[in-house]
Amino acid sequence: MTDARTSLRSYLQQGRDTLLWKMDGLSEYDVRRPLTPTGTNLLGLVKHLTFVELGYFGPVFGRPAPGIEAWFDEDAGPNSDMWATSAERRADLVAGYRAAWARSDATIAALALDAAGRVPWWGDGGADVTLNRVIVHVIAETHRHAGHADIVRELIDGSVGFDSVGDNLPEQDDRWWREYRDRLEQVARQAAGPEHPEPGEQPRG
User: 194: which residues sit within 8 A by CB, 6+ positions away?
Assistant: First the structure.
């Protein structure tokens, strides 16, 4: 039977790998360009999660995390960890993310799951935590952003899947997917009522 530490570590790595896979084969422009009104972009997600791992598995447990200071730099501006500047090289940011994994994994291996830590940025005065809680928190954050990356990558070139193209979706051709989407749009309009008429119709009411 797999022990809890190994299981948690496996789920964390799964999210890490998926996030990086979402950038495979894309240009510098595509990994950086914002695809949502709030600017969500693939390389920015990698940069953000690097700081997440450095912070939660470093200072929270009194362990060193070189580079984490930039996460708390008020002069950097709001949301500065969610995008890469033109001077920041993609290869360097990916290497930095992998280096953060190594530091996180060292913390996970070295400490007991009930080891005590403190998150100073959680609420007034911070919050006391265990390693187990922090691992679960970072797993949730990583997979949440991997989900963001799923949508961003699909918007860029239509690629979908968990860790390979289409591996967790029905095996259908492009025509099936267009018809499927159109069917969902029709159902949504029907459920919403007259304020969302079919294309070409005038709103009623």
Answer: 203, 204, 205
Dihedral angle, C-alpha 175, 181, 186, 190, nearest 10 °: 150
pTM of the model: 0.88
Q: Is the Cα torsion angle 81, 152, 31, 169 positive or negative in sign?
A: positive
The closest alpha carbon to 165, from 157, 105, 6, belongs to 157
pLDDT at residue 14 above 60? yes
Regarding predicted confidence, which is higher, 109 or 180? 109
**Range name among 5-14, 88-97, 119-128, 186-195 with the lowest pLDDT average:** 186-195
Q: Measured between alpha carbons, how far is 108 from 87 in angstroms, rounded to an integer?
A: 33
CA distance 79 to 88: 16
For residues 84 and 90, the answer to whether their CB atoms sit within 8 Å is: yes
Question: Distance between CA 56 and CA 81 in Å, rounded?
Answer: 15
